[in-house]
Amino acid sequence: MGGVLEQERRGEVKGEEVVPPGLGALRGRSLLAETDLSPAEIGELLDVAAWLKRKRAAGEATPLLAGKTLGLIFQHPSTRTRNAFQAGMDQLGGHATFLGTDDLQLKRGETIEDTARTMSRYVDAIAARFAAHDDLLAFAAGATVPVYNALTERAHPIEALGDLLTLRERFGTLPGLTLAYVGDGNNVCRSLLLTCAAMGVGVNVAAPAGHQPEPEIVDHARALAAASGADPTISLTEDPLLAAAGADAVYTDVHESMGEHDDPAKTAALAPYKVTRAMMARANARAVFMHCLPMRRGEEVDADVADGPQSIVFDQAEHRLHVHKALLVMTMG
Ligand code: CP
Ligand code: NVA
Fold first, then answer.
1. Ordered DSSP codes for 270-329
2. Whose CA is nearest to atom 7 of ligand 2?
3. What residue segments make up the domains of the chain, in order of their start?
4. Domain spanning 4-155+320-332: which CATH class is it, in words?
5. Rounded mean pLDDT of the chain?
6. Ligand 2 binding site (Cβ under 6 Å of any ligand atom)
7. Closest by Cα among 42, 87, 79, 37 to 62
8. Distance 84 CA to ligand 2 centre (A)
9. pLDDT tens, 80-106?
10. Which fold has domain 159-316?
């Protein structure tokens, strides 16, 4: 692929026009699971996102998707994912339409596949947040345009892409970094494991028994890590201080995800996994605190960490915008 910076430097041309970096590089592709993009493609997506961030900071318009429409279908609430897709389409000169699943005939029994077939006749790509991952797969099977996973109970791959952009910007490079994930072995944890490993970032997961990521996810992450060239360590422990030791980033997420019910036993099991200043002190001196948001101060993280000098949670939130725009440009352009 040659990389966006090289492409930008060369001012690659198509006819009379300069081709913006990444435009159409993944045309027609969906993002349902972490491994739908190769490490090289993730690297290019991060380059395109960084280019789009620079353009926005410089106040330069990037109307790369004029005339294109993105459909959004969401079964759960969202602040970051929905806004990043909608604002992103506006900034790219296109348009986005939003539908909650309760607004659709889906609510009256129309099948997920028929909903996808119909929406595909109106829009150029669809971002979908379904509670159940199988529903997302059924939707994608019916769709004839790219479908982006906007979170399911199993995976949140686009979150991990934004987080990698944040880490890369902060530390200058990805291979060799170590991220400690402390808390519930949930959708965000799985996506971080697989995406970080593929990009050469080590992951230490600390989670209580019964709430750890599945062994096959950990094995898959180890295989991706070995193939990355950097061969970072992927570890799993019940000890949060051990996981945090020497890490470049300490990451956590809510202890109760959307669609889950109040579970006092789970709450009690996860209580010792709250990120505290003492835990941050075990990490590298340069370590950052990360959270996908929304967060509950006092539950999975103490407020003095969440709002402290090591916290980069709102950089993460911002970077969702830039990676969403990069994905749109590359797959719809
Ligand atoms: N992190 C994240 O996906 O946030 P939202 O649920 O607000 O989209
Ligand atoms: N694990 C959380 C992430 C929210 C962005 C959830 O699924 O609710």
1. HGGG-B-HHHHHHS-TT-EEEE-S---BTTTB-HHHHTSTTB-HHHHHHHHHHHHHHHHH
2. 257
3. 4-155+320-332, 159-316
4. alpha beta
5. 95
6. 151, 186-188, 253-254, 257-258, 292
7. 87
8. 16
9. 999 999 999 999 999 999 999 999 999
10. Rossmann fold (3.40.50)
